[in-house]
Amino acid sequence: MAPARPSRRLPSLEPRRALLAVPILLIVLVTVVDILAPSRVHLGPFLVAAPAVTASFAGPRTTAFMGALAVLAQLTVASVRTSAVDLNHSFQLITLVLMSAFVTSFAARRERHEREVSRLRTVATAAQEVVLKPLPHRIGPLRIASVYLAAEFEAQIGGDLYAAARTERGTRFIVGDVRGKGLAAVADAALLLGAFRGAAHQQADLPMLVAFLEGTVASNLDDPTAVDAVAEDRGEAFITAVLLDVPDDEPVLHLISCGHPPPLLLRDGRVGTLDTTRPAPPLGLTGITGPDHRAATFTFERGDIALLYTDGVIEARDEHGTFYPLEERAAHLADKGPDALISHLRKDLLRHAGGHLGDDAAMVAIARVETCGGDA
């Protein structure tokens, strides 16, 4: 389940066309009532509401047309009641023409803004596909499902990350969370993902891969020309991550956690945590604490599901301030496949958080669906 692509088109025209009935009915109503009203009552000024309402949802041409229709209606009222050239109706006509021109220019600016937003969404989609590539549904003996939920409105990618890489002996995964938000977090996420994809199949074992990634992150944090060097204190920047190595021919997985929440293991309807006895520090902090990259090994057999996630999932709060109980909710879905598991957790997480997350959230479910011998 990759992030949904934003539309490259402007919003549908059908609802907008239906809304045109509102200003038209308004013009008709004001015109009829103004003609039938006593001579001391003048409702002409209300006609300006027609182009003003139209400008809120339609383009400049439609707005200008509605303004012209309102002016025509005002001329009709003036001709029926007195004259189009008397002082009162003359000022009403001039005011209506000026206001129609103003709201038409407003509609033109709004339409240009919508087109700019549409282009930016297209660029964001392209950037997402480059930085956060969708995970395949099947790699070797593994079936995979994933979801990314960005906290920023309309955003497709933030500081959370995940990726998979195929090696000669198996498959390697990374799920991480960059400290911070915005473009700085996206830049750091892109750096780590690029380093992982380039080195995952080259480094002989998991500790060597983590050491390489640590060196990449640390060198970037020390770079004064980095994108976010002036946006935050680089001395406080780091990336938490969990890396997995899942061999094809062994019923195990190797794991190194760099300050990241421990993955869950779903087996036979039960849920447990893959806690490491000696977790490594987050990437970018080994210069302070010293490196400790040791892989822990866990049994990972056919039918097992490993659930990796970021802290945006377990730190999501409901209206009462209660954190999302991921382990409890996953326990009710332990007999589901990875696709159903991620789908249910996504809906449940958003429902728990009231439809809006306070932080980016990502989940990756990995299921072994074949035995080590390759039998399905």
Give an account of the 3D structure.
With 376 residues, this protein is α+β, with helices and mostly antiparallel strands. It is built from 11 helices and 11 strands. Strands 1-2-11-10-7-8 form a 6-stranded antiparallel sheet. A hairpin with a 2-residue loop joins strand 7 and strand 8. Residues 1-11 and 227-234 have low confidence and may be disordered.
Which spans of ≥5 residues are poorly predicted at pLDDT below 50? 1-11, 227-234
Report how far the terminal alpha carbons are from each other. 23 Å
Identify the strand order in the major beta sheet: 1-2-11-10-7-8
Strand content: 15-25%
Largest sheet: 6 strands, antiparallel
Average per-residue pLDDT, rounded, comes to 83
Structural class: alpha+beta
Supply the number of helical segments: 11
Whole-angstrom Rg: 30 Å
Outline type:
elongated
* N to C succession of SSEs: HHHHHEEEEHHEEEEHEEHHHE
Number of strands: 11
> Which range best describes the helical content: under 10%, 10-25%, 25-40%, 40-55%, 55-70% or over 70%?
40-55%
What is the gist of this entry?
It is built from eleven helices and eleven strands.
Task: Give the tags.
376 residues; alpha+beta; 5-stranded antiparallel β-sheet; 11 helices
Q: How would the blueprint of this fold be written?
A:
Blueprint: H1 13-19, H2 21-36, H3 49-55, H4 60-81, H5 87-131, E1 138-139, E2 142-149, E3 160-166, E4 170-178, H6 182-199, H7 206-221, E5 239-247, E6 252-258, E7 264-267, E8 270-273, H8 286-289, E9 296-299, E10 305-309, H9 311-314, H10 326-331, H11 338-352, E11 361-368
